[in-house]
């Protein structure tokens, strides 16, 4: 049954419920709990794709990346710059010499063997040496920040999985241009947890709360599965007299296929006061 047919079936069930008819089963379809069209924040030529349709991926796994040869060359320059210590050693040595000279002039001045002008000149030399040392340290810090900036740009050239899931479609081939007008490279879904969004009559929805466990029938063979109410909309649809209810369906074994029909017998609603409560703040990972 297609999506339009499922929606029509749901509306029919709603009308029957409102008229007091016996049929109180509503129907929708199962869909991935999460889905994402993945792209990069940068533009460029697609250099590598390491997954294909059907690949199972983990959170944080690199799936594809753009050409980043120029950035890697810049990263080497920035890395060499932040590791260069010669200028720092020279500046530290100069400051140390100037400090010893200043202490020597202070001793000589106390004994009357140096003039005030010589002492002031030594103090000025030391302050300048300290300023040069600080300048070298700041330059090294800036080179470190430049290294981090280039590394961040390289990371932005990569596409990583935002959650555990399955690649369902790859839109581009290696060598293709990724542009702001056509940035999507591949599509990822999470199906170890599924969801179904029902349109429930307002009267029945008043008894529902997040965490309630429901018994659902899924697929043409009407396989019985538990579902957990995750969200009950605070706003009713005035035209249909229904409230949107999102139900989470565990699918760790992957036996339920996304897109199957999902049915809910509203006669269960009288039992909702006694059903188990589940912490719905716990999301599928």
Describe this structure in words.
With 285 residues, the chain is an alpha+beta fold. The chain is 35% helix and 32% strand. It has helices spanning 3-18, 69-83, 86-110, 116-156, 202-205, and strands at residues 25-39, 44-49, 56-57, 62-66, 158-160, 165-170, 177-178, 184-201, 213-218, 223-237, 242-250, 261-265. The chain has a 6-stranded antiparallel β-barrel.
Rg measurement, Å: 34 Å
User: How many discrete domains?
Assistant: 2
Reading off the top of the CATH hierarchy, the class of the largest domain is best stated as Mainly Beta
Strand numbers in spatial order across the main sheet: 1-8-11-10-9-12
Cα-to-Cα separation, first versus last residue: 30 Å
Structural class: alpha+beta
CATH names the topology of the largest domain as Elongation Factor Tu (Ef-tu), domain 3
Number of strand elements: 12
User: CATH-wise, what's the superfamily of the largest domain?
Assistant: Efflux pump adaptor protein, beta barrel domain
CATH architecture of the largest domain: Beta Barrel
């Amino acid at each position: 049954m297609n999506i339009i047919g499922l929606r029509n079936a749901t509306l029919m069930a709603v009308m029957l419920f409102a008229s007091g008819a016996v049929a109180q089963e509503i129907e929708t379809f199962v869909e991935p709990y999460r889905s994402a069209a993945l792209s990069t924040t940068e533009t460029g030529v697609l250099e590598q794709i390491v997954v294909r349709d059907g690949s199972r991926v983990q959170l944080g796994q690199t799936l594809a990346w753009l050409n980043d040869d120029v950035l890697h060359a810049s990263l080497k320059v920035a890395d060499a710059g932040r590791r260069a210590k010669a200028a720092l050693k020279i500046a530290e040595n100069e400051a140390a010499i100037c400090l010893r000279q200043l202490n020597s002039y202070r001793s000589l001045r106390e004994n009357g063997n140096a003039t005030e002008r010589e002492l002031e000149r030594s103090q000025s030399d030391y302050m300048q040496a300290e300023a040069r040392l600080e300048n070298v340290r700041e330059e090294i810090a800036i080179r470190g920040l430049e290294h981090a900036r280039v590394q961040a740009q390289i990371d932005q050239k990569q596409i990583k999985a935002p959650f555990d899931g399955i690649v369902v479609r790859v839109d581009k081939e290696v060598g293709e241009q990724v542009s702001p007008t056509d940035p999507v490279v591949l599509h990822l879904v999470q199906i170890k947890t599924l969801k179904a969004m029902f349109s429930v009559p307002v009267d029945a929805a008043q008894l529902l709360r997040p965490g309630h466990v429901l018994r659902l029938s899924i697929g043409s063979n009407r396989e019985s599965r538990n579902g957990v109410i995750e969200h009950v909309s605070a706003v009713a649809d005035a035209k249909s007299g229904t409230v949107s209810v999102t139900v989470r369906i565990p699918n760790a074994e992957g036996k339920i296929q996304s897109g199957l029909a999902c049915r809910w017998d509203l006669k269960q609603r009288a039992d909702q006061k006694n059903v188990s409560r589940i912490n719905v703040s716990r999301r599928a990972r």
